[in-house]
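Lab notebook, design round three. We kept the backbone fixed and only want residue identities now. Task for the bench partner: fill in a sequence for the structure below.
Input structure tokens:
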């Protein structure tokens, strides 16, 4: 494997691109009709694809993602420096706070939000050994 792309199906590509640009503090590396991409760590890419085109692209065998709007089915877990900063930017940009940034028993300090499309996004940082 040379690179991983995580693609979120979104209702409004432009609004989602603006949200993630504000949260990540970056401009997209690609922003064309049908796909917006942000570079993440270790060569990973976050893609935003309009849900309206998914059935056309993948066929009628796939349930229409628009019918599950706001129903979380996965989590985008981002290990970052200063999780509180990212968490605050997300809430300020329109995310719904699910759980504040706090130490978790797996060794990370993590906060959870739901983005405007209902995707769960976690902002985590490693807790230094005490």
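Proposed sequence:
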């Amino acid at each position: 494997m040379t690179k991983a792309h995580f693609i979120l199906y979104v209702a409004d590509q432009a609004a989602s691109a603006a949200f993630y640009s504000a949260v990540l503090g970056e401009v997209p590396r690609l922003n064309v009709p049908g796909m917006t991409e942000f570079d993440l760590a270790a060569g990973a890419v976050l893609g935003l694809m309009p849900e309206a085109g998914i059935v056309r692209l993948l066929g009628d065998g796939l349930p229409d993602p628009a019918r599950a709007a706001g129903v979380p089915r996965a989590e985008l877990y981002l290990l970052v420096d200063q999780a509180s900063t990212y968490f605050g930017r997300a809430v300020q940009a329109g995310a719904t706070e699910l759980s504040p940034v706090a130490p978790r028993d797996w060794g990370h300090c993590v906060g959870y939000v739901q983005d405007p499309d209902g995707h769960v996004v976690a902002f985590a940082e490693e807790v230094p050994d005490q």
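Keep this in mind before ordering anything: The chain has one domain: 5-57+69-126.
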